[in-house]
Task: inverse folding
């Protein structure tokens, strides 16, 4: 007699549901499941994989992240020097810029902001790999910058 039960073979379950261009995959649960889900979706080439985490995953700066950079607001022309002491969101709020926000941990997506130019250092748990690679939006509550200047659609 052999045991039954245990975790399902997630990769096999996903592979049995091949992606079409408009197919979206969603997962919510513990971090170990979500990490595996994202990894398997990447391996299978499923571009539209979405997750929801219950707690933030600490994502540190990438090796090529700038320690300080200039953030420019396209609509107002205002500029801010962002340093490691404060997040981009904190600087914007301190400067009187009205930016919607909620979690301050990069898990809710409320502070998603469009990027006009520059290269963000994504540190959130909201955007998919494809969305991060596009560099069209960022979560200003936790993300940084890889370029010397970041122009936001604010």
Result:
């Amino acid at each position: 007699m052999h045991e039954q039960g245990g975790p399902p073979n997630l990769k096999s379950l996903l592979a049995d549901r091949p992606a079409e261009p408009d197919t979206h995959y969603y997962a919510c649960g513990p971090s170990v499941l979500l990490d595996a889900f994202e990894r398997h979706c990447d391996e299978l080439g499923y571009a539209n994989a979405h997750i929801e985490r219950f707690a933030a995953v600490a994502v540190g700066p990438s090796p090529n992240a700038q320690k300080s950079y200039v953030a420019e607001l396209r609509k107002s022309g205002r500029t801010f020097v962002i340093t490691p002491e404060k997040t981009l969101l904190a600087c914007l709020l301190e400067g009187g810029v009205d930016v919607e926000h909620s979690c301050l941990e990069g898990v809710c997506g409320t502070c998603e902001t469009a990027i006009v130019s520059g290269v963000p250092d994504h540190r959130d748990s909201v955007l998919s790999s494809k969305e991060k690679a596009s560099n069209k939006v960022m979560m200003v509550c936790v993300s940084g910058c890889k370029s010397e200047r970041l122009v936001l659609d604010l």
User: Anything to note?
Assistant: The chain has a mean pLDDT of 91. The helical segments are 10-15, 31-44, 88-94, 129-134.
